[in-house]
Amino acid sequence: MGDFFERIVDVEVTGEEAGPLAERMVAWMVAEGLITRELSRDGVYSLTVDEGYVPGPHWARAVADSSDPTWLPGPVAVIAGRDYHVGGQGEDDAEYAVCPRCATKTVIINYPEEFEADEAVWQPFKDGIATWKETGEGSAPCPACGASVPVTEWQWELNFAVGALAFDFWGWPPLSAGFRATFSRQLGHRTVEHMGKF
Fold first, then answer.
1. Element (H, E) at 30
2. pTM of the predicted structure, to 2 decimals
């Protein structure tokens, strides 16, 4: 068992813009009836946030299938601040990263032969992410073409994202494609979505 979440990460917003944008998105979701302003800790296991907004009367408009009358979704946690996000349950490192300059895939965890990151390969990415978290700017060199690429521009594997604003939908049925597209348009930035388990 465990608790599942679906996450939408804004990978373009700056750390300084994240707080005001988070509030604007919350206001939009409240106006749409998707969430309320009431906060709850029940079923929220986000790493840096321990409470979220209780679902509103029209939460079903956001999901692909709301036919189960017994399904009661959990809160929506809003995580503002520069960080990396993983699918949960022991994950902490990216499996791979694709350079946006030359499209070369750098393998960090060589599944299924290995289950741990190759530290020599992963270290430049870790350092770049740590610098970005602290200063708002951080890069990692591409082993193939040598370009120094901002960590926010690398194309990470599906269960890893780098961004300054994330929304965790705890215990919701899968979000619909239409809602995810609308959500990204409301943010005004490129987003990455992944599901995870705590």
1. helix 15-31
2. 0.91
Count other Cβ atoms within 10 Å, centred on residue 190. 13
Which token pair is 57? 């009367």
Burial label, 78 (beta-carbon count in 10 A; 0-12, 13-18, 19+): buried
In this structure, the number of other CB atoms found within 10 A of the CB of residue 145 comes to 12
Position 1 confidence tier, pLDDT thresholds 50, 70, 90 = very low
Q: What are the pLDDT digits (tens) for 16-44?
A: 999 999 999 999 999 999 999 999 999 99
Cis peptide upstream of residue 112 (ω within 30 degrees of 0): yes
3-class DSSP state of 72: coil
Say which amino acid occupies 85: H
Q: Quick check: 40 and 51 in contact, CB under 8 A?
A: yes
Distance of CA 64 to the CA centre of its chain: 19
β partners of residue 163: 83
Matching residue, tokens 């393998």: 107
Nearest in space to 62 (alpha carbons), one of 8, 1, 3, 4 = 8
Contacts 24+ apart (CB under 8 A), 136-139: 136/14, 136/15, 136/16, 136/82
- Report the distance separating Cα 60 and Cα 35, nearest Å: 11
Each residue of 90-109: pLDDT tens digit?
568 999 999 999 999 999 99
